[in-house]
């Protein structure tokens, strides 16, 4: 029984893998890898207890599943006509225009990439990523100017990076801040939140109550905005 005993339960329409093993508490997990939901529970936990536990967390599970599906969709982009791409939180339909080269335009609900007919998926992706970077470069200086004045700190350097697992980072030894390129796909308020969050790290490196206190005073609705960044 080294790996525990596993069985499956369907709770509120969601398939849950239950693993009973020698542990003290129950744990719930939505895999970022395949979106599967699992519960680890102490050996003699009754199904009923597990069902109630999962039901009490159903909102959280659903949020995680939506996040997983969104990430999946965005990872499978092929840069072809008809795909949905996001700019500042708004969906646009991709249209490849073969007339000219290397331009990106937003027209109504269309994101138009003007590129060579033989361009590869990678070339189109690079074009769009450069364009996303420009969108951030246009907005970041003003945001930093505004919030550095309010918070009373200064970033020594701001870098835009395409990051997989975080929206931003702050090296508190030398106050260098990185901002995730992917934020150009989210509503602009999310970018502002990340700027504030990273600048506040200059005052307080960890996410403790002092940090949260600063966030509450500078950006009172930060928790709500953070939810949208799931
Ligand atoms: Zn942080």
Strand residue percentage: 25-35%
Provide the CATH architecture of the domain at 130-227: 2-Layer Sandwich
Q: Given the structure, what is the number of helices?
A: 6
Number of strands: 11
CATH superfamily of the domain at 130-227: Metalloproteases ("zincins"), catalytic domain
Strand order of the largest sheet: 1-2-4-3
Q: Summarize the amount of helix as a percent range.
A: 25-40%
Q: How does the helix and strand content classify structurally?
A: alpha/beta
- CATH domain topology of the domain at 130-227: Zincin-like
Ligand inventory: zinc ion
Largest sheet: 4 strands, mixed
Index terms:
230 residues, alpha/beta, Zincin-like, four-stranded mixed beta sheet, 6 helices, binds zinc ion
Task: Describe this protein's structure.
The chain has six helices and eleven strands. It has 230 residues and is an alpha/beta fold. Among the domains are: 5-61, no CATH class; 130-227, 2-Layer Sandwich (Zincin-like), CATH 3.30.2010. It has a four-stranded mixed β-sheet with strand order 1-2-4-3. It has a four-stranded mixed β-sheet with strand order 5-6-8-7, with helices on one face. Strand 3 (27-30) and strand 4 form a beta hairpin. The chain is flat. The model has no long low-confidence stretch (mean pLDDT 92). The structure holds zinc ion. The site of zinc ion has 3 residues, from helix 4.
